[in-house]
Amino acid sequence: MSGRGGKATLIAVAVVLAWLVIGGVSGPYAGRLSEVATNDNAAFLPTDAEATRAQDLAGEFVDRQTIPALVVYERPSGITDADRQRVSADAARFAQIPGVVTPLPPPIPSGDGQALQVVVPVDDAEGEEIGTVVEQLRDITGGDRDGLTVDVSGPAGLLADLIEVFSAIDGPLLLVTLVVVLVILLIVYRSPVLWIFPLLAAGMSYALASVFVYLLADADVVKLNGQAQGILTVLVFGAGTDYALLLIARYREELHRHDRPWDAMKTAWRGAAPAIIASGGTVIVSLLCLLLSSLNSNRALGPVAAIGIAATLLVMLTFLPALLVLGGRWAFWPRRPRADQADPRAEHGIWSRVAGFVARHARPIWLTTAVVLALLTLGLTQLGATTLGQSDLFTQRTDSVDGQEVISRHYPAGTGSPATIFTTEQTARQVAQVAKDVPGVADVRPLPTGPQTGPPNPNAAPKVVDGRVQLEATLADPPDSDGAERTIRELRVAVHQVPGADAVVGGFTAINVDTSDAAKRDQNVIIPVVLVVIAVILALLLRALLAPLLLIATVLLSFAATLGLCALLFRHVFDFPGVDSSFPLFAFVFLVALGIDYNIFLMSRVREESVKRGTRAGVLAGLAVTGGVITSAGIVLAATFSALAVLPLVVLVELGTAVAIGVLIDTIIVRSLLVPALAYDIGPKIWWPGRLSRANGEREARGAG
């Protein structure tokens, strides 16, 4: 016996040492993901989008593609000669910044004489370094002075502010996530030792995932952006801790039945691993369905997050068991489990009472909870998916937001970020006239043949490239507003109708329009595929058809209730203007995939117990022994996703809030009451058409007793 125990210890030590070496190699990559992240919206568009085609055509009209920074100066009492001198001096210094494309166009005065605007073209090839260029622009302007306010806005200013937000992912977000998981583990285990094991394993999972994501992004196999990077962080720590909780709970049970930790772990691993693998596999496959997206940003998130879950599965099923074996019973101190053959349900008094309550009131419970969730879905009427405007993107004020508001007060709001129209030389005048007649278009001018060094000349000869002309349409509304998007849609309809024009409309606003349209298409394609995939996995795991269909129905009800409740909170508590067009799909993938996790944890154990006890007794036993761990896991996952709130970006705050609320609804209401009560009320037929559905009434009666 001692020989077997010594061999087991050596194996565990070897596994731990091997993982520590892997962690030492991969750990540094966790802090380097920002180096390979990109946040260029246009790069994520589908290649067949009209805005993408327009961007390709624009490259033929310039030596270098640029993204404009708009430096706007405002004095409500009127711009003075001293202000003009300051603006000219600033512009001369702007031209000397590496990455700024010269010559700069002259400052643009506002019609009311209260503002001056300098358009600073920044080389698009600068990539993430655009943030550095904008920072230098802001350093040169020096901020407000003597009643003259200065802001750096426009697409480059917005991108710089986004880069600054996402730079918090490597530090603050990771730190907050670690602290949240640590606090919850201390509360769950009430042990000064045990929390170390799942937290160390989760950290190892993140390091392993980071090295693969880094290498793939560096090789340009996947496009990593700040949003995907933030989700990777919370997903790995949240899901990893969930899997750890499930394995540790089963290990604790088996320590009551086995003298040696190695034997207890072998049994626990055999019992918990199928559910953990099925759970992780479901999440991975659901995430990989994002590869069907037409948006490169969504296609990138799928494999990035899937790599995170795959790394987590590998670590939690190898490194964590080895750590627990080495820790033995003392890891649970001061509540060390003894080999006393105790019934697992004896340690779950609260959940045994919940199971008894479900047994006595099964039908009223599932009917009541279903009605409550259905009522919450009524809030969906308040959701209003849209493209968030620049001023709505952030939870706090930024320089780019302030600048856009100044521009909107004194100029046609689209000044500096015009829509671009490409058409044939022969139809250019007709297309320009048609475009001017579109409501919401303030002005249309051709791109001149040379650099603009003086006031715009409407009679300047247009630049012609391969028989095409580029027109620039200034919009009356801010380029990221709903009004501007409506104008772009109407503009496209109008210019497409000009015979022989072969017109293509692009620009900043057009990118938002095409992104929103692609997001709606993705929802219609990906959501049904995810549901079919999950149904197949559940059917294979539970060896039944009715149970998977009912479980998916409860998850969909939970998802709709979550979105309904979130819609009310976003509108009436957080005062958000709406949700981004990508929000429903992301919320669905994470809530449904993660919600199915808890279904798998519960129903795989219920099936295991049903084989031994009968279905109704199996439901009660499964609920009693998994209720605590599922609830703890749900709280951990909800808390880790709520850590996204540290990033001052509305879309991530909304996603974190939705996942947190949805997971809590899943664990507290759906998995603790609705599903067990429904399964108990249906009885053996829940396993139709599998063998368990034909369990005889006599055995069922004995099991229930």
Task: Describe what is shown at a glance.
This protein is an alpha+beta fold. It has 23 helices and eleven strands. The two termini are 40 Å apart.
Task: Indicate the topology.
Layout (H helix, E strand, L loop, with lengths): L1 H25 L23 H9 L7 E9 L6 H14 L13 E2 L5 E9 L6 H12 L7 E5 H13 L2 H21 L6 H23 L7 H30 L5 H28 L7 H21 L2 H9 L21 H12 L1 H15 L8 E2 L3 H4 L5 H12 L8 E6 L3 H9 L4 E6 L17 E2 L2 E8 L6 H15 L7 E3 L1 H35 L3 H27 L6 E2 L2 H31 L1 H28 L7 H33 L14 H8 L1
Parallel strand pairs: 5-11
Antiparallel strand pairs: 1-3, 1-4, 2-3, 6-9, 6-10, 7-9, 8-9
Helix pairs in contact: 1-7, 1-11, 4-5, 5-15, 6-8, 6-21, 7-8, 7-10, 7-11, 8-9, 8-10, 8-21, 9-10, 9-11, 9-18, 9-20, 12-21, 12-22, 13-19, 13-22, 17-18, 18-19, 18-20, 19-20, 19-22, 20-21, 20-22, 21-22
